[in-house]
Amino acid sequence: MEAILQNISFMISTYSMPLLYLLVGTLASAFLSCLPALHIYNVAGFLIILWAKVNGFTTPENFLGLVTGLVVGYSIVNTVPSIFLGAPDEAAMFMVMPGQKYLMQGRGFEAAVMTGIGGLGAAFAMLLLAPILPTIVAVVRKVLQPHMGWILATIVVYIIMSEFPKGGDRGTVWEKFRDGWKSIVAGLFTLFLSGFLGFIMIYKPLVPIEFAFQNIMPAFVGLYAVPWVIMNIVSRGNIPKQHIADSTNMNWELITRGTGAGMLGGMFAAIFPIVTGGIGGLFAGHATAQRDERLFVMSQGVSKFAYYVGAFFLLFIPGSGLTRGGMAWMISSFYKPYGVEPYFRMLGFIAISAGLAFILLLVLSKLTIKFIQIYDYRLVSWITLIFITVIVLSITQIPGLIIMTVCAAIGLIPVVFHSRRMNCMGILLIPITCNMLGFGPAIASFLGLI
Amino acid sequence: MKGISHFISGVAAATFVSSAVDLANYEHSIIITLGGLFGILPDTLDFKFAKFFQKFDYEVDPHPENMNPQKIAETIAKCINEAYKEEREVNLMLHTVKLSADLFRQYSLYFDNENREVVVRIGPVVNMSKLPYPGTEYEGDTVGRAKLDCEVLHSYDSETYVDIFGGPDFGFEKKGDKVEAHFIPWHRKWSHSLTLGVFFGLLGWLIGLIFGSPHAGLYGFVMGMGFCVHVLEDQLGFMGSNLFWPFTKKRANGIHWMRSGDAWPNFTTVWLSLLIILFNLNRFNPPQNQAFNMSWVEFFGYTFFVPLTIMLIIQKTFQTIYAKDESSDEDFEEQLVAEQNKESKMENEETIG
């Protein structure tokens, strides 16, 4: 009995402070996630700089609790601006279309809850997979590491080849051809244009060197958030009254299928560099031949959680040494986990934080619905756009604003021509794939960048 | 099968060639990617090119607010009867009825050979998932019937739904004393041919030679193989392919194991292909760099058959649970209806009394 009490006392003294930081991180993240375009990696980046400057205001273990709360909270609650304010991040780009549809049917709350259920499903799946995950990751990493170049090239080729014509049913042969190819050409144009911009950003970074770790942030905001907000401003439609449903009309079979599909895509994105949750989610959707919109929305929530949290979690897998995703890179600069204790501690943290974040998602979704129903949706979109601009300007200054504007122009192409927004990921996929295959520098030289 | 299944199958097939894996590993070649590219190419040729060149003798393009099922049925019957009488192929396009960006009015056609009729039904409004919205049933006439001069042979579904994206089309052609209905006749007509796969292989080899590649034959082989894998996979379905075009003119029937949009065949194909890729890349690594040392029976047993069995058990369990739920719901409804009937009978008796 005494030994048990001693163990409990030891656990409380060891984990109470990190747990407190975890809860603070989750709470802070939940509120910050509702602000459009503010990526949690930006917040974490500033926190790390602050932590280093004030000579470590807390222990690394406590700080780890804080950032875990930030990343878990963000991956669940960030669905709020995606659905209600039309300002997605790069991992949520596929959730936006069905999410917006739900919003336009007065069912935005349902969509947010389904995505949240997806996050909880992903956390549960991670707990289930915990005993075998170290083995799987070690094998996959060892086998695939030397082949990463052609694997990324294969992903790019699939993105290009899998966009099929929309329309093209009426008129002469030429009219049908032109109508059908309109979206494909727009998609290709977006992919190569964003790829070209990616080369410039990698070889001639425009963002000041002190903000180098935020280099990609204005680009993603421009590519994904700004175009949708602009469309909300110019469109004449108003959002209908939102219904707070008692049930999401999902059964356990759908939840299991959605979790399976989303985990497949999310873990794929977490393990492979530069593959985002959106790309992973799309592949999983294709692979499991999803037709049900509920399944799609939910599995995107799973994929997003598995992508952000899973990538971060890979760092803690004993013996893997895998650093994937912005948060893991930032943390690995001052913290190296050893043994199995941090692995299981992190699992516990993720489970607790996910539960809290889900509750916060329900509350914040309802508050956001009240907000967008009090104010005109176009006014809300204007406020969102101004807020985005201020955030980008304050973090990355004028060069960041220029990047955001150029990227917004590119990001508008798929919105206007109804092609895939995923093509915007060319900004990372094209230059990094070319670099990994060894001919990136030759292209950069041809473009006059080096 | 879905594009991703064909694509990843082509990649998986390429990894069986050890020299291709070596080339990808040591010389940063994208040879394995070419397997995937040529794996999806047959559908690319059809859906991005051949589709637009198809000409139609008749087009059904119903107005959303004035759906006339009788007129639609008569147009379809006219096509079939014309193909029968004039002994030529008659092509028909059935356009979808788009109501908004993501809403469509569904309608279906059914070849009723017993009564020698074509039956058209107007359905509810459906979303992009083909899920109907309750309470959106059409308010006018919902069924149209038109007489046929002959029976219709159909290798695909007897009932075809016209709902989302572009509508399906048919080619009707006389066969003996019947008319055969070719579902989307431009699909798998010439593009899904093993002969064309060999041609692409030779073309790849020739291009490789022109560019002075010492591995020209290997490139050609991988390209041709990816293409042929697609054609063979499609034979597992209903529609089949024109396997030896230009030597054969018609599609050979598929073996009816699966449908192209079914979730399970697509998922198992993708999953199996990913495992094949992992297994092949590992075994072609130098022994000191191999991550595991298992026989293929062990590897695929643990990673494919065991998880698949678990998933099937889970699915069956859910199906049983939900079937029970539905039947208990039905029992409840039946009970409720019976009680209501009893009450109304008693009320009537009281009134009469």
From TrEMBL, chain A:
Protein origin, superkingdom: Bacteria
Keyword field contains Membrane: yes
Transmembrane segments: 20-51, 63-87, 111-140, 147-164, 184-203, 215-234, 254-284, 305-323, 343-365, 377-395, 401-419, 426-449
Record's keyword terms, sorted: Membrane, Transmembrane, Transmembrane helix
Location of the DUF112 domain: 19-425
PANTHER family documented for this protein: INTEGRAL MEMBRANE PROTEIN (PTHR42204)
Official protein name in the record: DUF112 domain-containing protein
Species: Muiribacterium halophilum
From TrEMBL, chain B:
Domain of life: Bacteria
Presence of keyword Transcription regulation: no
Family matches, as InterPro entries: YdjM-like
Region (Disordered): 332-353
Keyword terms, alphabetized: Membrane, Transmembrane, Transmembrane helix
Residue stretches spanning the membrane: 194-212, 264-282, 294-314
Chain intervals with Basic and acidic residues compositional bias: 340-353
Protein name: Archaeal/vacuolar-type H+-ATPase subunit I
Source organism (scientific name): Muiribacterium halophilum
